[in-house]
Write a structure and sequence with these properties.
The protein is mainly α. It has two helices and no strands. The longest helix has 40 residues, at 2-41. The radius of gyration is 18 Å and the shape is rod-shaped.
């Protein structure tokens, strides 16, 4: 009986950690949408902000990868 409850806890924890992957997708969309909004307002400044766009996308995506890693660790390593 205890093994089943522990396994259930692992899967619930992994599912909650996997929510971070969806949140990362929302974050990337937010970064890209705000860049596009700013680029449409001031097209001459868009070229200088492209590096900042990629850095923002990389940070948002890294958080998604970390949450996916935590989900995998909870499912298979614990």
């Amino acid at each position: 009986m205890e093994g089943n409850i522990a396994e259930l806890g692992q899967y619930i924890g992994a599912g909650l950690a996997a929510i971070g992957s969806g949140a990362a997708a929302v974050g990337v969309g937010n970064v890209a949408g705000n860049f596009l909004s700013g680029a449409l307002r001031n097209p001459s400044a868009a070229a200088s902000q492209t590096a900042t766009l990629f850095i923002g996308i990389a940070f948002a995506e890294a958080l998604g990868i970390f949450s996916f890693l935590v989900a995998l660790l909870l499912m298979f390593a614990v």
